[in-house]
């Protein structure tokens, strides 16, 4: 919201020497956010001049210039070259003399041009920053001005004004007006505030509008949104015999310009001016283009409206419109219709101001992609008490500036609900804010914002003002007390954490797992949890087929309308984006929750507890039951080279080994004994897929994407992925972990080669060796697998490197051999293994 200081001073006593920075500081103290300072950026000398003569001089380039003699209030007239032709001798214009600087910045100096020395410049409205019109110079007679030559044009046109801009939060729609900002300045500084609605003349005129009858308006809302009527207040008035071609006065143009509103025409400018002043939008129609009276209704199916921007809008049955007896003439609260627009031939105008239901307006704005200044205010709530006053102000300004007669006929209705009193117990503000507020501070603060405060048995009954729909309970009243008294009263004290608290075991281990992968060179990413159903079907289960998933009621992207059941889709999206930018070697991981609803269970609840009350156990149980299980997972993706090519080192491509290495790294960090067995997954390459287990229970998978899928997603042919159920791994991990002491005795190493059937898994054979060798076996690793000559068909040879050690003595070769033979015997008994010589 931009507020010219000259306008602000009409409603509140801003000191004459107050700078824009001072005003900003005052408004920041009551919770408004400082944005910017705006001015016309015009410095003098800029004066009124009267054209004495204008001699046209054709030029060789085909252009005709005027060599003018202009009286600027000095002893001698100044010679000025001007290329415009919309003026004549005798006209009074605005002259920028040498030394002046116009917006741009555009410094003015005497310069030789077209064979003359032009001693200044006759300015257009655009050159002065007063609008977009630049086809001709600004003629003061057209503005109804007749000043003496030499008069300071900067002050005359209001170019010396300055505006402060503040950001208004969505809950404080009343501050989208000079009236609201003036009240806030008064609350901050204690300066006297003059509410324009209480001005005797405007108040009397508003009462006349409320009593006016005779103009037919029907409120017919047979499809209210959320059970709330779309229109609760409607005021209409008629002014006859106006002259809409009269130019907007300079003081209004300058204020509108500083406020960020483009001057269009007098009637439109008046409507915008009053909207900025009082916060109540209004609209003016050409009465001759209205058939009969007005009807406020919902749009009919298939109905269209050409809005003032010239675009045809296909209306929705939920849209609220203002219509005459035949067609819609305006999209309520958003924009008027082109067919009823005021033109230079208009003589009678109809002015209306209404209170529209915010949700209806907000939906219409988004449906038609049609934001407007009026809609911005209606979406946040407009003071229902200002409707009649706004219409009275508009028609008064119209009569003063465009002539005409205010018709006695009009219309007014008000079905709005007055604000309900709110109980505010004594001491409640202190219990919430931690600040001791006196009774006077509480009542004075609430009175300052416009509330009515009455004593009650244990505190006060507070009735919010009509312009504050955001004040709905005692907590919002406390916020106002804290804001008005001053946020500086709230101590900046960090709370002391209770002893014995901190991260839970799961939180701590999740962080450790992420730190382990990051320390290993992987990059942590964060992806959106919204995916397509096909991604959930691919990665939500190792088995092909649909999986239970939660669909969003109002998705941002209809192609990603489901909550993820796996982290892999997000990692694939991140990898594709980085590959498209030339980053070909990637090791990515993400730690996050996935959503895995139980089949057949309906989720969702409307029972949300109040923010200021501790929910009961029953409420918490209902809330927990309303959301699906959200286990924590950790996923990783590897593409490109794990080791880049360098002198003496060939490139090493990423693959399944990297995914398995990351899985082992996570398991080791969490003190979990990870088992890797051959697995199957319908999205992964057969023979390049591993099932990951802890304590015999499946906890995830690792593998390489099917080449066809990798190609569809523009990924390299070899793309390795990993996903672990982090909650399951943590639950199965050892809770008591002790460090293994460094051995003081030497180890004995031996190798063993076992011939087994091709159907026997190497991991299974290794587990049997570990079991059979007993406590002396310190380490076992598969070092070779062989198929070929010397090995029976359908068999394979597995070679394991074994390391034996005793904690209390040096092992003999015989002891190590005995342990090895025991392992071979167990493998022979269980899987038919034979030792290979």
Automatic annotation (TrEMBL):
User: Which residues bind Mg(2+) per the record?
Assistant: 470, 479-480
| Alphabetical list of Pfam families matching this protein | B3_4, B5, FDX-ACB, tRNA_bind, tRNA_synthFbeta
Entry keywords, A to Z: Aminoacyl-tRNA synthetase, ATP-binding, Cytoplasm, Ligase, Magnesium, Metal-binding, Nucleotide-binding, Protein biosynthesis, RNA-binding, tRNA-binding
- Please list the residue ranges annotated as the FDX-ACB domain: 743-836
| Domain TRNA-binding, chain residue ranges per copy | 40-154
Q: Which InterPro entries match?
A: aa-tRNA-synth_II/BPL/LPL, B3/B4_tRNA-bd, DNA-bd_dom_put_sf, Fdx_antiC-bd, Fdx_antiC-bd_sf, NA-bd_OB-fold, Phe-tRNA-ligase_IIc_bsu, Phe-tRNA-ligase_IIc_bsu_bact
Q: Which Gene3D superfamilies match?
A: 3.30.56.10, Bira Bifunctional Protein, Domain 2 (3.30.930.10), Ferrodoxin-fold anticodon-binding domain (3.30.70.380), Nucleic acid-binding proteins (2.40.50.140), Phenylalanyl-trna Synthetase, Chain B, domain 3 (3.50.40.10)
Where is it chiefly localized?
cytoplasm
Compartmental location:
Cytoplasm
Enzyme class per UniProt: ligase
Tell me the protein family, please: Belongs to the phenylalanyl-tRNA synthetase beta subunit family. Type 1 subfamily.
Annotated protein name in UniProt: Phenylalanine--tRNA ligase beta subunit
Q: What species is given as this protein's source? A: Antiquaquibacter oligotrophicus
Q: What gene is it encoded by?
A: pheT
